[in-house]
C-alpha cells in the first residue's frame, strides 16, 4: 500500500498540466479572497501589450469569481483521475478492517461483512473460493449517486470473469449502512493526516469554493470579520 501511495505521489508531482491549473486556481482564488476579506483594490494590471487601470472595482470581483468557477472546472478535468486513485487507495485500506474482512489461515472460515454478504446474497461458496488454488475472488468498495454504496465482487477462474454488485443499504440494513459510512468518514479523514496527496488534490477546491462563497455572501463575511477582528 505504501508503494502505491509513493507511485501516486510521483504521478501528481510530475503532472505539469495539473500543476499549472492548480497554481492558476490558487492564485486567482487568493486574489478574490484578498479583495473580499480586506477590501483591497486592484488599481493596475500589466499585460503583454498594455497596462490597465480599473475604475469599477465591483466588476473586478465579479470577473474573478467567474474565473474561479471556470478554473474549478478545468482543475477537476485534470484532477479527476487522481480522485479515483485516491478513492481506491483509502477504500482498499478500509476493506482491510476486521469489520469488513478477517481471515486467519488457521481458522476454517473467513469473517466480516464482505463474507457475510457473499454467503447470504451470492450463489457462490465464497469460503471455498478463498481457499481454492484454481479460483480467485476479489472485492472493492464503490460509491455512486445519492449515497449509494456497493461491494463489488469479482470472481474469476481460468475460464471466465464474473462481477456482482451488492447494494449495501438494501442488503446490509440501515444500521449497518450507517456504520459503513462512519468507517468511510474515519478512513477518509485519517488520509488527510497520513498522506499529503489528499491535500495536494483537494486544497485548490477548498480555496476556490471559499472564494466564491465570499463573493456571494460578502456582507455575512464582513460581519464575521468585524466580530472576530476588532478595529
Describe the structure.
The structure is a single chain. The chain is an alpha+beta fold. The chain has a domain at 2-80 and 196-228. 64% of the residues lie in helices and 13% in strands. The protein has nine helices and five strands. Helix 2 (16-38) packs across helix 3, helix 2 packs parallel to helix 8 and helix 3 (57-95) runs antiparallel to helix 8. It starts with a helix and ends with a helix.
Primary descriptors:
231 residues; two-stranded antiparallel sheet; single chain; alpha+beta; three-stranded antiparallel beta sheet; 13% strand
Cα-atom Rg, whole angstroms? 24 Å
Helix percent band: 55-70%
The main pleated sheet reads as: 3 strands, antiparallel
Number of helices: 9
Unreliable spans are none
Mean pLDDT figure: 84
Rounded to the nearest angstrom, the distance between the terminal CA atoms is 51 Å
The neighbouring-strand order within the major sheet is: 3-4-5
Structural class: alpha+beta
Order of helices and strands: HHEEHHHEEEHHHH
E-strand count: 5
Q: How much of the polypeptide forms β-strand, as a percent range?
A: 5-15%
The backbone outline, from C-alpha atoms, is elongated
Amino acid at each position: 500500500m505504501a508503494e502505491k501511495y509513493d507511485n501516486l505521489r510521483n504521478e501528481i508531482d510530475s503532472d505539469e498540466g495539473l500543476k499549472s491549473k492548480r497554481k492558476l486556481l490558487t492564485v486567482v482564488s487568493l486574489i478574490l479572497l484578498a479583495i473580499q476579506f480586506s477590501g483591497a483594490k486592484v488599481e493596475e494590471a500589466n499585460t503583454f501589450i498594455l497596462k490597465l487601470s480599473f475604475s469599477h472595482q465591483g466588476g473586478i470581483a465579479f470577473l474573478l469569481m467567474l474565473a474561479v468557477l471556470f478554473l474549478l472546472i478545468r482543475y477537476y478535468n485534470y484532477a479527476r483521475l487522481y480522485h479515483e486513485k485516491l478513492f481506491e487507495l483509502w477504500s482498499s485500506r478500509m476493506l482491510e478492517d476486521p469489520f469488513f474482512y478477517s481471515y486467519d489461515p488457521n481458522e476454517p472460515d473467513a469473517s466480516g461483512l464482505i463474507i457475510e454478504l457473499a454467503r447470504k446474497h451470492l450463489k457462490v461458496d465464497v469460503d471455498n473460493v478463498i481457499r481454492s488454488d484454481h479460483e480467485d475472488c476479489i472485492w472493492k468498495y464503490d460509491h455512486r449517486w445519492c449515497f449509494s454504496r456497493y461491494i463489488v465482487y469479482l470472481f474469476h477462474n481460468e475460464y471466465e470473469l464474473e462481477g456482482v454488485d451488492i447494494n449495501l443499504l438494501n442488503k446490509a440494513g440501515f444500521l449497518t449502512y450507517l456504520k459503513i459510512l462512519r468507517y468511510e468518514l474515519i478512513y477518509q479523514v485519517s488520509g488527510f493526516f497520513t498522506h499529503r496527496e489528499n491535500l495536494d488534490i483537494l486544497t485548490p477546491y477548498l480555496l476556490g469554493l471559499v472564494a466564491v462563497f465570499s463573493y456571494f455572501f460578502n456582507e455575512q463575511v464582513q460581519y464575521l470579520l468585524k466580530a472576530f477582528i476588532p478595529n
